[in-house]
Design brief:
- With 194 residues, the chain is of the alpha/beta class.
- The chain has 2 domains: 15-97, no CATH class; 117-184, no CATH class.
- Helices cover 48% and strands 13% of the residues.
- The chain has 8 helices and 5 strands, in the order E-H-H-H-H-H-E-E-H-H-H-E-E.
- The chain has helices at residues 15-27, 30-38, 41-56, 62-65, 68-97, 134-141, 154-159, 164-170; strands at residues 2-9, 102-107, 118-123, 177-179, 182-184.
- It has a 5-stranded mixed sheet with strand order 2-1-3-5-4.
- The longest helix has 30 residues, at 68-97.
- The chain is elongated.
- The model is unreliable at 126-130 and 142-187 (pLDDT under 50).
Length: 194
């Protein structure tokens, strides 16, 4: 199953989706972070110490002390949630201040098994007439150098770049070339596109 991933500069209308993506990426680790911090030795020691202080000095019954682990778990979960929300908001503020942002658009079937996809990565735009702009340099690797920004298996994408030339021609590019798994839409000295 083939699909096309178009890498382009971010626009102003992409900001809400990018912010939601940043927030959900941090929220996705809430459960793992909770278990990590709840079962830390320091957290368990503080629970035992707090229970001992409440039992010995405050005269709290043993039945009431059974509420201490759920209260400790709630406190750890709240701390994790607040910390992740604060970090995500900080990253969103940094995203709003950035001079250049990149967006990868997926064009393909909505319901697909990731192992069966054969993606073609296309650089949708150049920032200079020569085509060796910053976006192209990051994806194709400037001056003949390969840059591993596309993740594992990126070199194999070049072999599966069927249809990239048609997409480049439809977008107004002069041709399409491939190097290191990225497909360029026009005259590129770094990846060899014509």
């Amino acid at each position: 199953m083939s699909c096309v991933i178009v890498i382009r500069k971010a626009r102003a209308d992409d900001e809400p989706a990018r912010a939601a993506l940043i927030r959900s990426s941090y929220a996705g680790y809430n459960r793992d972070a909770f278990f990590l911090f709840f079962f830390q030795e320091l957290t368990l020691q503080m629970g035992v110490l707090l229970g001992a202080v409440l039992f010995i000095f405050c005269g709290v019954s043993l039945r009431a002390l059974l509420l201490l682990p759920p209260a400790l778990a709630a406190a750890v979960q709240l701390a994790v949630w607040i910390t992740h929300a604060a970090i995500a908001d900080k990253r969103v503020q940094e995203m709003r201040k950035e001079s250049v942002g990149l967006v990868a658009e997926y064009h393909g079937p909505l319901v697909a098994e990731p192992r069966r996809l054969r993606p073609t990565v296309v650089v949708a735009e150049h920032w200079r007439p020569g085509g060796d702009g910053p976006l192209h340099t990051q994806v194709c690797g400037g001056h003949g150098q390969r840059v591993g920004v596309l993740g594992p298996g990126a070199r194999g994408l070049a072999a599966r770049a069927r249809g990239a030339r048609r997409l480049a021609a439809a977008r107004g590019g002069r041709g399409a070339g491939a190097r290191g798994g990225a497909v360029c839409t026009g005259g590129c000295s770094a990846c060899g596109a014509q």
